[in-house]
Specification:
Elements (H helix, E strand, L loop, with lengths): L1 H13 L16 H11 L2 H12 L4 H20 L22 H6 L9 H12 L10 E2 L11 E2 L1 E5 L13 H17 L2 H4 L13 E5 H8 L3 E5 L5 E6 L5 H4 L7 E3 L12 H14 L4 H15 L10 H6 L14 H4 L23 H6 L23
Parallel strand pairs: 1-2
Antiparallel strand pairs: 3-4, 5-6, 6-7
Helix pairs in contact: 1-3, 2-3, 2-11, 4-7, 4-12
Length: 390
């Protein structure tokens, strides 16, 4: 019933949305489809929050900015953008409640996760998973007394929710703020994590990791593979998507089933809820090419470094993605603030970004020189870093 109500609220607002028309196919306005698809993969409480946020957007520009916020401070980090998509000041969002406010999240003073802790994580998961890949069942390469007919592989400790979500410089106020924005979005749309008391400090916990063949680790981190619960305790169907390489498919068992069990130690098995959220995100990234568009935006940062000379760089997306957060509950504003006032919808009076993050004109962009391209951890050959090497 809640989902049906959410759909009604969502449809009522999106029915009035006017798409931006572009002659270029790759620049098609996907705002409406993006929000409808994201709604589909959420649980009822997350759906209710998204419906509330969408209906609270008084202008179409705010709806587009909501999509940019979700990309920059939720989906981008999940894809591996980490905390560094922009060096510009991050706009604040209105309070969603004391416990969910940006200020409160910053005040919790979470410690960043470190690569050093991954050595212990790898050791513990290797023992728990019996020195075997949980998907392919291949043994860790180099072990003795392995049956002749069994496969071996270089195994790595694969995070379920990515390490990037907890990686930031606590001495950099903008990175701290970006981290807080991201986790406010995560808790708002995936509220079971908050119920579990799962924070960025738990990303290196054993329940958020498992041993995977290096090839499968890369595909899992890229959301081209996920684990879907079968209804049998600790048993999962290994679901793959059409963009996964054929070489990775050869690593998987023919029945596409994986059963998690503890072979040694008392460490928790991969958490079903974390695996479910990963699977929900994998589904979204493969709806209508949303994942491909997000990847392209992130590649523009990482690979180009400067605006392309042929004008192919999506400048609007590169600039808009810098807006790290959108007023998620516009209804918390007063009626006078929500009504059109003749001012730009993102003016300070309406809670938008300050003038120092306004989009620049063409002449300003040409004169500005290079765009610094931050590196993304999720696109490295070994998604979890050097500590994961066997």
């Amino acid at each position: 019933m809640a989902a049906a109500s959410g759909y009604t609220i969502l449809d009522q607002r999106l029915d009035h949305y006017k798409e931006i028309v572009s002659k270029k196919k790759e620049e098609k306005d996907m705002t409406k489809g993006f929000l409808l698809d994201f709604f589909k993969i959420l649980d009822p409480k997350g759906q209710a929050h998204l419906a509330q946020d969408v209906s609270g957007c008084a202008t179409d520009e705010l709806l587009r900015l909501l999509v940019k916020s979700l990309t920059d401070c939720l989906l981008g980090p999940m894809k591996g953008a980490g905390g560094k998509t922009s060096s510009n000041p991050t706009p604040m969002v209105p309070r969603l409640g004391i416990e969910d406010s940006i200020d409160n999240m910053v005040a919790q003073d979470h410690d960043p996760v470190t690569r050093g802790a991954q050595k212990a994580l790898r050791r513990n998961c290797m023992q728990r998973d019996g020195s075997r890949c949980v998907a392919s069942r291949a043994w860790q390469n180099g072990l003795e007394n392995i049956p002749d007919d069994d496969d071996t592989a270089n195994l790595e400790a694969a995070h379920i929710l990515p390490f990037n979500l907890g990686s930031f410089n606590r001495n950099d106020s903008q990175e701290v703020l970006k981290h807080a924005n991201t986790w406010v979005n995560i808790n708002r749309y995936f509220p079971t994590l908050k119920t579990m008391s799962f924070t960025s400090e738990h990303l290196n916990a054993e329940k958020n990791a498992m041993m995977l063949d290096r090839t499968l680790h890369f595909e899992f981190s890229a959301f081209r593979m996920c684990f879907v619960a079968t209804g049998i305790r600790n048993q999962y169907h290994i679901k793959t998507f059409k963009d996964i390489p054929s070489q990775a498919l050869k690593c998987l068992p023919t029945n596409r089933l994986a059963t998690f069990q503890s072979h040694s130690g008392s460490w928790e098995l991969p958490d079903p809820e974390l695996l479910r959220i990963h699977a929900q995100l994998a589904e979204f990234f493969h709806m209508s090419g949303h994942g491909e568009r997000i990847d392209k935006i992130l590649r523009d940062y990482e690979e180009l470094g400067v605006l392309a000379s042929d004008g192919s760089t999506n400048v609007e997306d590169l600039l808009a993605i810098r807006l790290s957060s959108l007023p998620l509950n516009v209804r918390e504003r007063s009626d006078s603030e929500s009504k059109p006032s003749g001012k730009h919808p993102l003016s300070k009076e309406q809670g938008g970004p300050s003038e120092n993050v306004r989009p620049r004109s063409d002449s300003e962009s040409k004169a500005s020189g290079k765009h610094v391209a931050p590196k993304r951890g999720g696109q490295q050959p070994s998604p979890s870093g050097p500590e994961n090497k066997p």
